[in-house]
Amino acid sequence: MSTMDQTHTPDPVADLSKAPLPTESTLRKRRSLPLQTIRFAVFNVRIMRMVLKGHH
Length: 56
Hints:
About 0% of the residues are buried. The protein is built from two helices and no strands. With about 55 residues, the chain is mostly helical. The termini are far apart. Helix content is about 55%, strand content about 0%.
């Protein structure tokens, strides 16, 4: 094991103070279980199509 200088550098911190907040509509969509289920199913179908196209 080498004994290199192990000075601790602070982790970079992202400044999120200017980030936009989600709208009420966006929050409602994120919390909607039926909508999330549909999105999950559509995503899975897209992935399966991609996998099946690759297995000619």
